[in-house]
Specification:
By secondary structure, this protein is mainly α. The protein is about 70% helix and about 0% strand. It is built from twelve helices and no strands. The chain has one domain.
């Protein structure tokens, strides 16, 4: 997971720097490919490490306090350094801080939606995907309080949490409140996955190649704002078919890295993966400062 987080934080930073020199060629193509996968995978990682215990303490120390501090710092940075008249407020997260705000909401919701029943897990996940698709029809679901992104990316948070429970069962670790017979289900799934391993690998690789080809073919027709999932279909000019494709690509990314990313530590990368939060919270100052002086133009 440190390998994955290290790769993702590099892609996050790279994506934000690409915004400063966005064109119609390779930079745009690379940007779109990054945005297909990196946020769904990051949310998956957050869900993977989420816990239902000590929710209040986790939210206060790890999320709420950093959110308040950096919301103030970024707004002061805008006003003092960038000379922009930005109001001091906390209901609309500043740019990259939407993720912290969303994490607060997802962590609060987790004890409500967490269940030890396989069938209920699948049902809740399907309902979350349906909500993500239907939310685009409501023009009131947008950037305010990061509501659109909270709804759209919530399925990946659930997926990370549920798959972590499956991984713990697979490793023989205790899972609190475990449903009777779940170990049997997990073992049967492992047997099937092993039996059709090559077929599954070919499907995942072929699907990824398909996304790469489709991106090259249609990227000229896609608006970059569609990938942010921050507003309704009407306000961005997108549609439910694009969001469905985006969600499917994100799911493919999750299962792809689970199958192909090595468990052994990748030098330097795993170290970055252990420092994702400070890198995420601070790189925005550099991006905005460079943008102010048009250093990439």
């Amino acid at each position: 997971m440190d390998n994955l987080k290290g790769i993702l934080i590099v892609l996050v930073v790279l994506g934000h720097f690409l915004e400063l020199c966005m064109g119609k060629g390779f930079s745009r193509y690379l940007y779109i490919l990054i945005y297909f996968f990196h946020m769904p995978l990051f949310v998956y990682c957050s869900g993977y490490f989420a816990k239902c215990t000590k929710v209040g303490e986790r939210i206060l120390k790890r999320l709420l306090i950093p959110y308040v501090i950096f919301q103030m710092l970024y707004i002061l940075f805008e006003r003092v350094v960038l000379k922009n008249d930005l109001e001091m407020q906390f209901s609309k997260p500043y740019w990259i801080l939407w993720y912290l705000f969303a994490m607060i909401v997802w962590t609060i919701l987790l004890p409500v939606v967490s269940t030890d029943s396989r069938k209920k897990q699948v049902l809740i996940f399907i309902m979350a995907v349906a909500a993500a698709l239907l939310a685009g029809y409501d023009n009131g679901v947008g950037r305010s309080m990061s509501l659109s992104r909270i709804i759209v990316y919530f399925p990946f948070f659930l997926l990370g949490y549920d798959l972590h429970m499956w991984d713990k069962e697979r490793e023989g670790l205790p899972v609190e409140g475990k449903e009777k017979g779940r170990e049997v289900i997990t073992r049967k799934l492992d047997v099937l996955a092993g039996k059709y391993r090559n077929v599954i690998n070919c499907v995942v690789i072929a699907s990824f190649i398909g996304i790469v080809v489709v991106t090259e073919r249609y990227m000229g027709n896609w608006k970059l704002s569609w990938f942010y999932e921050a507003a309704s279909y009407k306000s961005t000019g997108s549609g439910i078919e694009f969001r469905l494709f985006h969600l499917a690509a994100g799911m493919l990314g999750v299962f792809g890295v689970r199958r192909f990313l090595p468990n052994k530590r990748i030098p330097i990368v795993h170290k970055l993966g252990q420092k994702t939060m400070p890198i995420y919270l601070t790189h925005g100052f550099l991006v905005k400062w460079i943008d102010m002086y048009n250093l990439f133009s």
